[in-house]
Design a protein that fits this description.
Structural class of chain B: alpha/beta
Radius of gyration of chain A: 20 Å
Shape of chain B: globular
Distance between the termini of chain B: 52 Å
Largest sheet of chain A: none
Number of helices of chain A: 16
CATH architecture of the largest domain in chain B: 3-Layer(aba) Sandwich
Oligomer: heterotrimer
CATH class of the largest domain in chain B: Alpha Beta
Helix content of chain A: over 70%
CATH superfamily of the largest domain in chain B: Response regulator
Radius of gyration of chain B: 22 Å
CATH topology of the largest domain in chain B: Rossmann fold
Distance between the termini of chain A: 39 Å
Structural class of chain A: mainly alpha
Chains: A mainly alpha (329), B alpha/beta (390), C mainly alpha (287)
Order of helices and strands of chain B: HEHEEHEHEEHEHEHEHEHEHHHEEEEH
Number of strands of chain B: 15
């Protein structure tokens, strides 16, 4: 009996599933701030939250081709859910986060029926419109959301009854990073599954996939709901670690920012959102520290430079560089 | 392990702090330097700079150093993070600035947690100062102006009013305060509309207000492009300011709003605490040096920041350079001084501002369209907190 | 009541015409090259600032400043097209988004640096101010002027597109770019010219908008959403579509505010979502 051998495509897929050394190095590096930059942990925690949000957008944009300008709807919905539960007297973080996930998931599932029917510009504008409608609704429901002043009275209990959310952000970063890592494991598994492959097929050719037995709309609804859950968790984390929720969590600017972050890092690469979040937020922090009035100029220049010199985002550029190095060696 | 590292670094940081504390006092300034609210923040920054230019950068033998941070607009999560970072990373001794309410509320938590003195130089929602026992405010509160205006309106023969406010927190507060002041005095509100925050064209709303046939139309609007757009719509709809009075909070007739409105603004009556046209020797000197330094007139943002710096400097003098939140806030309580806006004080009970509310009318004087004070109510405390106590 | 309905219609239409001027250029260039130019409103902002500088600092009459607002936006857009846009014609939508958002960021910062962050005033000549009574209804003179300008421009655009050789080339390029190239039309040149014209119109729109909605450094951001809404609802590459969509949105926005002020900001977004769900390609879109 001949031993079972892998065919070429299967080998390619296997290679993708295996953990690369550079991935391990990346995740180990996320622990460095604890040691080398303990005064930057608050920023680090917000980067981790933004990275999670960008990762959730990557699932739909990078893997299913859905460009959304209203993704903050789920982020904000999760944020308000987590914030309200804490405000109403249940400040336990993990259950609050679970509630945020469920709430955003339900909203995501409900809207996914609309999303799955449209493509291109109409899809972008419908996501934008739905996002803006939700933001307006939150503004109108001032009795619930606190309106423009933001939600007041969010008080979190200690994490596991032991770790207070402190001024230095140690707990916040540990908590956010752990959740980000878990979500990343889930996303990684998901996109390397047959379901993930089918999604990529839809992204490349939405008409052909049903013909080979992969129902496009059902798949799109599923991944959209998962992405909404993840965005809701990110929003919940922000509400819990900052103990504030504002209308701005639902706003257009947040949707646009996360899109920029993802494209900057490189869409469709899982790590794109993570790398994008690190670069964008660190750059913003540094530029706005040096030049609080005109930092937009520098961040704009950065974006233009990335597009001109690294057309597939920073990660795309890195991949190309690695290939060059390898072929030279 | 992680914890030990973190602890070690905190200890190291604290050691550095106490060494530095000998020579300098750091003020963390959090403002929305970029984005939609950049102009108020720029004016506040100017107010801070002017104060330091006039009174030097040394107080109680220590050098004052500013560390500026940008929130980029309404972003309480960022404001809170910046406040935390300023305290743990930059070791600032106090927080100051705050153009926007949500940001001030979020930073208030940090001030309370870290026991740091905080000077809110602008954000005007009444409850902000309740967030931290170490916070004082040097601007105004929305009820302070608008409830006063409501009561004033009834006293001045206005019986039926229509109100029109921006549909978000501060607008709702302005509406509620005016309604309360006006109704308590005996007036009747015959209609109330709220327009979207991002509204640009006001003709429909103004037409509606006109159709209501009230004695007065009360308008609450944030600064920015809206005051001018409202003023133009009022003129275009042909509202006669002799028949229907237009009332509002001072932003409605701020300097650049009036520049944009032109003569369309004549006759509008507003309640406010500061205007560059306020007649006093302190203010004349203030406006003169402000103009020399920055090439434009100061506004309420500049005044709030200027007076905020005054509170910081005087409190530091009283404590002899001690910077803990407790000492500074105690030093600030009950402080009274002559500001460019007139007499003002910090209420020892609420740490909020006590000042004169001026009633002004837009008039053309020597070719210039300006706010002219023609009535005033002195020593107004924040009515919201007075009501909270009952 | 009928009188006020007419007034609401009039005001809404005028507002719609403003949106039309701001967005028509983007609609045509998007339709032709599929180039996602989020910096379109930066050109509008440029036009606005040119008018402010000319009228306030150099004492030009308002009307004379308008052609220059058009020209300067067009010229700057040609320069940017040469230096930046051209490199990305074949690139993905996402890369184009990132590039043009970068340009928006830079333009906003530059505007804040030069002009500060205040609202820019504009001084209208007296004959454009105030209102006139027509059929018992007082109509703003400036709004009448705005509608007049927009209708003239629309007529010129439609005529040029229908009856000139260049117009035919533009239509061909919008309908089928590859085929047009095959027929020997220099699509890149046609695009560059259209792009400049579209940006110029945005510049003119920006100058005309100051009186109604104001102008500050954040204009490039603020109006992006509205312009995208008009383009999407009207349908890509369609002048008529942009015209109808802009009037529809302007009127429904105004009517909503007058008759149902409590709905306020909801209405314009709701109308957009509903229209797009009904016709995903936009009212006049074919692709």
């Amino acid at each position: 009996m001949t031993p079972f051998t892998l065919s070429e495509p299967q080998r390619h897929l296997e290679a993708q599933i295996r953990w690369q050394p550079v991935e391990l190095a990346f995740w180990l590096a996320t622990l460095l701030p604890f040691v080398f930059a303990p005064n930057y942990l608050v920023l680090a925690s917000q980067i981790a939250i933004t990275a999670l949000f960008a990762l959730s957008l990557d699932l739909i944009l990078g893997y299913a081709g859905i460009v959304s300008l209203g993704h903050a709807a789920y982020f904000g919905f999760g944020s308000y859910t987590a914030g309200l539960i804490a405000k109403w007297g249940w400040g336990e973080p993990l259950t609050g986060l679970a509630a945020a996930a469920v709430a955003a998931g339900v909203l995501g599932y409900a809207t996914s029926f609309i999303i799955a029917r449209f493509r291109h510009l109409a899809l972008i504008m419908i996501t934008l419109g739905l996002g803006l409608l939700l933001a307006e609704a939150a503004n109108s429901a001032g009795w619930l959301t606190g309106g423009a002043d933001g939600l007041q009275g969010v008080r979190m209990w200690k994490l596991f009854g032991a770790f207070q959310f402190d001024l230095y952000g140690t707990t916040a970063y540990t908590y956010s990073l752990t959740i980000l890592f878990l979500a990343f494991l889930l996303a990684r598994r998901l996109i390397n599954s047959p379901f993930g492959l089918a999604l990529r097929g839809i992204r490349e050719n939405a008409v052909r996939m049903p013909a080979i037995g992969a129902p496009s709309p059902a798949h799109i609804r599923k991944i959209y709901t998962i992405a909404a859950v993840m965005a809701g968790v990110a929003g919940g984390l922000l509400a819990q670690t900052t103990e504030t929720v504002s209308l701005e969590t639902l706003g257009f600017a947040r949707s646009a920012d996360v899109l920029v972050i993802l494209i900057l890092g490189g869409a469709g690469r899982l790590y794109g959102g993570l790398v994008g979040a690190i670069i964008y937020m660190v750059a913003r922090d540094q530029f706005s520290g040096i030049n609080p009035q005109y930092w937009y100029f520098w961040i704009g220049t950065l974006l233009i430079a990335v597009v001109l010199f690294l057309p597939n985002g920073v990660l795309g550029g890195l991949t190309r560089l690695m290939r060059l190095v390898r072929s030279a060696a | 392990m992680r914890k030990i590292f973190a602890l070690a670094s905190i200890v190291a940081v604290l050691a550095v702090t106490s060494a530095q504390a000998q020579q300098t006092i750091k003020i963390g300034v959090i403002l929305a330097y970029s984005g939609q609210f950049a102009d108020p923040s720029a004016q506040m920054d100017n107010g801070i700079k002017l104060y330091m230019k006039q009174y030097g950068d040394t107080v109680a033998g220590k050098k004052i150093e500013l560390v500026r941070r940008d929130t980029g607009g309404i972003a309480p999560d960022i404001a809170k993070r910046l406040a935390q970072e300023l305290i743990v990373r930059d070791n600032v001794d106090m927080l100051a600035g705050f153009a926007l309410t949500p940001n001030a509320l979020a930073a208030g938590d940090v001030s309370a947690q870290a026991k740091k003195f905080m000077v809110n130089m602008n954000a005007a929602t009444a409850i902000i100062t309740t967030k931290s026992p170490y916070m004082v405010r040097t601007s105004f509160t929305v009820p302070q102006l608008n409830q006063t205006l409501g009561a004033w309106a009834y006293k001045n023969a206005i019986r039926k009013a229509y109100t029109m406010v921006s549909d978000f927190g501060p607008g709702h507060d302005g509406e509620a305060a005016f309604h309360k002041g006006f109704r308590d005095a005996g007036g009747e509100i015959i209609g109330a509309a709220r327009y979207p925050v991002a509204n640009q064209d006001f003709s429909a709303f103004v037409q509606r207000a006109k159709d209501a046939n009230a004695d007065a139309i009360y308008i609450w609007t944030p600064g920015g492009p809206q005051p001018a757009a409202i003023g133009k719509a009022l003129a275009e709809r042909g509202i006669d300011s002799n028949k229907t009075k237009i009332l509002g909070q001072g932003e409605l007739t701020s300097e650049d709003a009036l520049k944009n409105m032109g003569e369309a603004g004549l006759g509008i009556i507003t309640a406010f605490h500061y205007d560059y046209n306020h007649q006093s020797s302190t203010n004349t000197a203030f406006v003169k040096s402000y103009k020399e330094s920055f090439g434009r007139n100061p506004d309420m943002f500049s005044a709030g920041a200027f007076d905020g710096m005054h509170v910081i400097y005087e409190a530091l003098k009283k404590t002899g350079g001690k910077t803990d939140g407790e000492s500074l806030v105690e030093a600030a309580k009950g402080m009274e001084w002559e500001s460019p806006r007139g007499p003002m004080a910090i209420d020892p009970a609420t740490r909020d501002v006590v000042q004169t509310v001026y009633i002004r009318r837009v008039e053309k004087i020597g070719g210039q369209i300006v706010n002219v004070e023609f009535d005033k109510v002195e020593n107004v405390k924040d009515p919201f907190k007075a009501a909270m106590k009952n | 009541m009928i009188a006020s309905a007419f007034g609401v219609l009039f005001d809404g239409f005028a507002y719609g015409m403003l949106l039309f001027l701001l967005s028509v250029g983007l609609s045509v260039t998007l339709g032709m090259m599929n180039f996602v130019n989020l910096a379109h409103c930066s050109f509008a902002m440029l036009g606005g600032f040119v008018t402010v500088t000319l009228t306030n600092d150099l004492g030009w009459p308002f009307l004379a400043s308008l052609p220059l607002a058009f020209l300067s936006a067009a010229l700057v857009s040609i320069a940017l097209e040469r230096v930046l846009y051209r490199r990305l014609y074949g690139a993905s939508d996402l890369a184009q988004c990132l590039l043009t958002i970068g340009i928006v960021f830079v333009s906003v910062a530059v505007a804040a640096y030069i002009y500060g962050t205040i609202q820019q005033p504009v001084n209208l000549p007296s004959y454009l101010r105030g209102s006139v009574a027509i059929m018992g209804q007082s109509l703003g003179v400036y709004r009448l002027f705005l509608i007049g300008v927009s209708i003239v421009i629309t007529a010129v655009l439609v005529a040029a597109l229908e009856f000139t050789r260049f117009g035919a080339q533009v239509r061909a390029a919008v309908d089928n770019q590859r085929m047009a190239r095959g027929l020997g039309i220099d699509v890149d040149r046609v695009f560059a010219v259209t792009f400049a014209l579209g940006s110029g119109l945005a510049g003119l729109g920006g100058a005309l908008a100051i009186e109604i909605v104001g102008l500050d450094h954040a204009f490039a951001f603020t109006y992006l959403i509205y312009v995208l809404i008009v383009v999407a609802v009207g349908g890509l590459g369609s002048i008529a579509g942009s015209f109808v969509a802009a009037s529809l949105l302007g009127i429904s926005d105004m009517a909503g505010k007058y008759y149902f002020p409590e709905l306020g900001a909801f209405l314009i977004y709701f109308v957009m979502v509903a229209l797009l769900m009904w016709r995903p390609l936009g009212l006049f879109g074919r692709r």
